[in-house]
Amino acid sequence: MKGIFATDKAVEMAYDEGLDLVEVSPNADPPVCKIMDYGKYKYEQQKKASEARKKQKTVDIKEVKISPRIEKHDYDVKMRNAKRFLENGDKVKVTMRLRGREMAHQEIGFNLLNQMIEELDEFSSVEQKPKLEGRQMIMVLSSSVS
After folding, report:
1. What is the DSSP letter of 19?
2. In this structure, how many other beta carbons lie within 10 angstroms of the beta carbon of residue 19?
3. Which of 25, 39, 48, 72 is the most exposed place for a label (fewest CB within 10 A)?
4. Can you give the pTM of this predicted structure?
5. Mean pLDDT, the chain, integer
6. At what angle do helices 72-87 and 106-119 cross, to 10 degrees?
7. Tens of pLDDT, residues 98-108
8. Distance separating alpha carbons of residues 106 and 134, to the nearest angstrom
9. Which residues make beta-bridge pairs with 132?
10. Pair 71, 112: CB distance under 8 Å
11. Cα–Cα separations (whole angstroms), residue 20 to 33, 36, 44, 46, 47
12. Is 85 exposed, middle or buried (CB count within 10 Å of its CB: 0-12, 13-18, 19+)?
């Protein structure tokens, strides 16, 4: 805290120290300035932002495609993949394509998706309930692991 100075005097003081005069708060009365190495300051801010980006976790949406006529072993493989995705903190989009006569028995598809919800209950929460969009049934599960 050096005190209140005229602008030209403050610039001269900063020049004498080999540093920059940086305006911190322009709306204050009188405006607040700091004498600092502005290049070093910008570099440190950039480094902090880079570190924050490195630690940030992006949530991806992984897709699992199934059919209403899926066999037990194939179903187990899909469940294992969905569980792994959820444990990694990703969202899982389950897509079921209905072909031909399968459209007449949509309840089979809804039952299968509800069974998946029950089995993955401890790892996930339902973000989007199973719903029919054209010839596809879609649901989204999000990870409950923090």
Report:
1. -
2. 16
3. 72
4. 0.61
5. 90
6. 50
7. 998 988 989 99
8. 12
9. 137
10. no
11. 10, 5, 16, 18, 20
12. buried
